């Protein structure tokens, strides 16, 4: 998922962004309400996480303006203000959910999944499958032919992207932008290294290869023709 985090506390933002990225999500961060509103209006997101107390423009104002401009992206409001009246204000401003600080990160992840599932019931897939390779996105579990495969976070993110584009040719640029969040070529062999590691885990001990190199184009995850 693509997530926008609007949080001015740099330490809290770093913790949240790091955790979301390690969970396989693409994350943008805004440090104040004005920047957050600009990003929210100009870029498509699956969900936004908005701190209530922000400089330049408070979180409720950000959400109210987004809704007035027709943005329907699900919003989870984070706040240290946890009284009933505070939560009601947040929901009336246009928030879809309200989570008080401090919070358990696992609960935040679960709330995000619920919000996205509610807003796009036909688009959210939590299980992916290509041939006998299966991925459970919620449990972060990979199984091939009944055998569980242990992947590192970046390998999991790479596999998830390839499986969501199964049968298609995925270019190096697509991988750099969507898996590594690079919008430039770092001139390294990082993709080759991770593709090699992933192939060794999902193909090496199995009869049918699924991860294919398309010369001069990129990679494709598919069953053999």
From TrEMBL:
The keyword rRNA processing does not apply. Keywords: DNA-binding, Phosphoprotein, Transcription, Transcription regulation, Two-component regulatory system. GO terms for biological process: regulation of DNA-templated transcription. Pfam families: Response_reg, Trans_reg_C. GO terms for cellular component: cytosol; protein-DNA complex. Residues 125-223 form the OmpR/PhoB-type domain. It comes from the Bacteria. CDD domains: REC_OmpR_CusR-like, trans_reg_C. InterPro entries: CheY-like_superfamily (IPR011006), OmpR/PhoB-type_DNA-bd (IPR001867), Sig_transdc_resp-reg_C-effctor (IPR016032), Sig_transdc_resp-reg_receiver (IPR001789), WalR-like (IPR039420), WH-like_DNA-bd_sf (IPR036388). The modification 4-aspartylphosphate is found at residue 51. GO terms for molecular function: phosphorelay response regulator activity; transcription cis-regulatory region binding. Residues 125-223 bind DNA. Coiled coil: none annotated. Residues 2-116 form the Response regulatory domain. PANTHER family: REGULATOR OF RPOS (PTHR48111), TWO-COMPONENT RESPONSE REGULATOR (PTHR48111:SF76). This is Response regulator.
